[in-house]
Amino acid sequence: MYQLSIASKNYSSWSLRPWILLKHFNIEFVEKNAPLDGEQAYREYVENGLLPCLYDDGFNVWDSLAIAEFMAEKYPKMWPEKASARARARCISAEMHSGFSHLRCELPMNIKLRAQGGDLSLSARQDIERICSLWREARQLAEAGPYLFGAFSIADAMYAPVVWRLHCYNVQLPEDAAIYRDVMLAHPAMQEWERGAFAEKLVLPREDMLLEAFGGRR
Ligand SMILES: N[C@@H](CCC(=O)N[C@@H](CS)C(=O)NCC(=O)O)C(=O)O
């Protein structure tokens, strides 16, 4: 049985990616939750101190994208079937993994937050525009299905935390991006993750700063 060690459901964008992937593909796993307290508490879970980490019979695989690739070797349907769509899905997953730092920084994942909306920097707005255009291009390549490339793939798992950020900070989106956001928000695993986030007690100090900047409640 796989074991997936994850951090806070409210705050850990990286943890959501492999979690939703395993859930979507109905892969059984034991979930281990670690606190997200800024301490080195994760060292007991994974050697680089960062979560998520997947254990397969004692063999550990860390980093959300590496976990996804590891699983895709066993479940090839995790990437789109058509070579061009598969290549593009890898491009946009890699871009998500290494980019969008302004969006990440200004709108940190906080699933319990329901902000009224606030001013974003030009760089963060450019990140969002880029994401919307990547989603649009993906949908143009998509086969049947409502997800980025039709059927749910690793690309959707990689962008799942962005969907929460756009939703929780009430970011206004073009119509096609809003449709995709809502498809993802309706995914049963996204809703299960949200219930898990609401059940958590942990509140990080930076929350008050965010509420001040964006208005709203948690
Ligand atoms: N690139 C890594 C990032 C993992 C990461 O930064 N995880 C955060 C939780 S969201 C963490 O473990 N932080 C603990 C710390 O910084 O001490 C991945 O994709 O898994």
Strand content: 5-15%
How are the strands of the largest sheet arranged?
A: 2-1-3-4
Q: State the shape.
A: globular
CATH class of the largest domain: Mainly Alpha
CATH architecture assignment of the largest domain: Up-down Bundle
Helix tally equals: 9
| Beta strands, count | 4
In helices, the fraction of residues equals 40-55%
- In this structure, how is the largest beta sheet organized? 4 strands, mixed
Q: What is the typical, i.e. mean, pLDDT?
A: 91
Summary tags:
218 residues, alpha+beta, Glutaredoxin, Glutathione S-transferase Yfyf (Class Pi), Chain A, domain 2, 2 domains, 4-stranded mixed beta sheet, 9 helices, 8% strand
What does this structure look like?
By secondary structure, the protein is of the alpha+beta class. The chain folds into 2 domains: 2-76, 3-Layer(aba) Sandwich (Glutaredoxin), CATH 3.40.30.10; 80-199, Glutathione S-transferase Yfyf (Class Pi), Chain A, domain 2. Helices cover 51% and strands 8% of the residues. It has 9 helices and 4 strands, in the order E-H-E-E-E-H-H-H-H-H-H-H-H. The protein has helices at residues 13-24, 64-74, 83-98, 101-106, 122-141, 154-168, 175-185, 188-199, 207-214, and strands spanning 2-6, 29-33, 53-56, 59-62. Strands 2-1-3-4 form a 4-stranded mixed sheet, covered by helices on one side. The protein is globular. The mean pLDDT is 91. The protein binds glutathione.
